[in-house]
Amino acid sequence: MDNSNNKIECKFCTNGYALFREHNTIYCKLIVECINKSKYKKYIFGDNSYKNTLSYYIGAFWLDDKYTKNIIINPKINNIDFMKMFSKCLSYSSMIKDFDKIYSINFEEPAIDYKGSILIKGLDALTSIHFLRMLELELHNGLKRNFIRKEENLNSKIKGKIDFSNHIKKNIMTARNDRVYCSYFDYDINCLENRILKKALKICYSNIGSIYNSFSCMTFFSEVSDELHFYELHNIKLNPLYKKYKLLIKLAINIIKLKRYKDSNKENYAPPFYIDMSLLFEKYVYALLDDSLKNKNAKILYQEVYSRHKLKPDFIIKCNGYDYIADTKYKSSCNNGINIEDIRQLSGYGRVESIVKEFTNDIENYIPNCIIIYPSDDSNNKIIDFEKKEQISDLVKFYKLGVSLPVLD
From the CA atom positions of the chain, what is the Rg in Å? Predict the structure, then answer.
């Protein structure tokens, strides 16, 4: 949507909301002032606050503590299917570990009216796919067990400790001298953690069951109860031995909260959330690189830190005939030309001794191949094909390569 349209900005002045696309420049002084005062300024403007240009984040944000003003930022690429990008990334287990850094949902703030934006349609699928992929990996080791408190009227034995209050009511007063009412802990699969996972799994199946086979996961939960009270989500204490369960449980709780949140609000209303499209594009390119080079015995180093200056190129690609220092740039402007700052950044990586040594010990005479990977409008570039790279004029061993992003049918 064209941010220069005065009608959009007048809606903010009169109704307290505005719709934009990534990278739009905002000309309305009131909107700029509200964003600069907002706790979400670093997401909305990023490093562009000095020129009032939106950053790489899409989503919906409240701009004031009274929840009367909000801004919705849609993707800059028309009909982009960011859910397909998520699915592609999550098909690789190596990318799941820190995937929660790409997006965030805020259940502590009131719902925002998304005005029919495509963002709201992807929220259920986003959390569901992330959860299911993590759950599938965890279930390779089976479900975890934990201690749960049980109460039982035992026959002529004591387990744990005697619950005297219930023992008097149920046994002493009824002359059941052969019984002892006890309270004890049992190491069981039917623990709170697994009941939360089962509840979230059922919600996921209702959300995306037709496009994702989550039924196979359900067989692991046959001995887990369906009983779960909402207040229990706030009382959970994870077993420190199960650190990997921590994020999985967090995702499951988010899915349960999102279902409850949306059920209690009107249509088109959902919690504030954001997606870092630049980081999502980076992960998406990583997945495409894995696809492209998996049969070429390649080694892809992702976000490795080099030198005392802590320089961190996106990718170091080591493969016979495919040796590159690669950086992703989520910028459509790369279709026409490369930003000089991007060239300087990537060229700088090529002068770092420890990076050059990834390719050769002859550091005095070796010039690394540098390549910038960016979103392309060409629908024929759906994969990473290094044969389609373009030489950047006047630069030695410096290339650019476009890749098209999936769009909605």
Answer: 27
